[in-house]
Amino acid sequence: MLMKTRIKTAIISSMAVVAAFISLTSTTSCNRDKCKTVVCAHNGVCDGGICLCPAGYEGSNCETVSRDKFLGNWTVFEKGSVTNSAQYGVTVGPAANISHIAITNFYNYFRTQIDGYIVKDTMYIPNQQYEGKLVFGIGYIYADVTYKQNAAILLRYEVIDTATQLVNDFGYNSVIDGSNPSMWNK
User: Fold this and answer.
1) I want to staple 166 with a disulfide (CB 3.0 to 4.6 A). Which of 17, 100, 129, 161 is the partner?
2) 60-118: per-residue pLDDT in tens?
């Protein structure tokens, strides 16, 4: 009888050790380091297997400069709330900061480059005053069937004459004045 008890105890102990081993290995295999094989460029940080990119970069591994898709020559089609329809060219170039841009010939008026910055697919034009006018706006880049991926920008902005306070709106306050956004195509 003593022998049966010892065998039973040995079997139970062995089963407990096997169960503990299985439990331990299954727990550690579920908690693998998901960032072990992920490399984030440009000082991006991996969190749970996903790269968190610093300002100015995007992509699954932070490999893409966000503003690059905005750079180049664009043809603008617009009609302001106080101006007639117009078509003209602008150039978007890089600025010193990786997420900033400089727009040449903005509004087909400014001789000074207009400053802007990019966050992923959005272009921001912060309040700035040049040549007697205040300008600000926001735009989105998107795919256009006629042109191609990242080849169209819908820009909502305003230009306010600082002397007369006359507002020329391009869809920024369309609910109020019925204006349409400016359309840019590559």
Assistant:
1) 161
2) 999 999 999 999 999 999 999 999 999 999 999 999 999 999 999 999 999 999 999 99
Q: Where do the domains of the chain lie, and which CATH numbers do they carry?
A: 31-62 (no CATH), 67-185 (2.40.128.120)
Please tell me the total number of residues recorded for the chain in this structure.
Answer: 186
Q: Between the CA atoms of 142, 145, 149 and 154, what dihedral angle is there, to the nearest 10 degrees? A: -20
3 state DSSP class of 177? helix
Contact 140, 125 (CB under 8 A): no
Q: Please give the model's pTM, rounded to 2 decimal places.
A: 0.79
Residue type, 33: D
Which DSSP letter does residue 119 get? E
CA dihedral of 164, 116, 178, 147, whole degrees rounded to 10: 140
Cβ within 8 Å of residue 178, ≥6 positions away: 81
Place of tokens 């117009």: 86
